[in-house]
Amino acid sequence: MTTQERGIVTRVEDEFAFVRKPRSKKCDNCSGKGSCLILEQGGEVEVRVKNTLGARPGDEVSLQIGRQDTGLRRLSLFLAAIAALITGGTVGRLCSRFVSAAVGQLLPAVLGIGSLVIVVLFWRHRSKNREQQPSQPIMEKIIRREP
Asked: How far apart are CA 31 and CA 27, in angstroms?
């Protein structure tokens, strides 16, 4: 999830703009913390962002900053795990007709738990890769252009 912030472009260097904005409480929870904060002085921060819109010093711009960790990701993991457990158990139950009775009783549980473990391991791997990529701020639009 991203958060929208407003700030003033203070300077432009190469293809980057430096945007000064008020420090908000959202900065503490942002997963991009440390990757975009350049300078912190008296309640303001300066964010280095790629100048995709050709902003100039003095322009007011809107930024999308960071992915914040929300309960939505955890909820989707929970739902995926439940779906994997049910699907694995159902497949195990359907396949139990073709094996002996002793194995047939264990097959739904083994396939259900196995698919659950696979989904959780896949999710953890995907989350680690996502965390290693620092989220960079994006210049969304120029709100007010300085003459």
From this structure: 9
The residues facing 20 across adjacent strands are 8, 46
For residue range 79-126, list pLDDT tens digits in order.
999 999 999 999 999 999 899 888 889 999 999 999 999 999 998 888
Cα gap 147→43, rounded to integer Å:
27
| Per-residue confidence band for 37, with pLDDT thresholds at 50, 70 and 90 | low
Are 104 and 97 within 8 A, CB to CB?
yes
The pLDDT assigned to 144 comes to 81
Measured CA to CA, the distance from residue 104 to residue 98 in angstroms comes to 8
Beta bridge partners of 62: 6, 141
Neighbours of 142 (CB within 10 A): 16
- Encoding tokens for residue 85? 């457990």
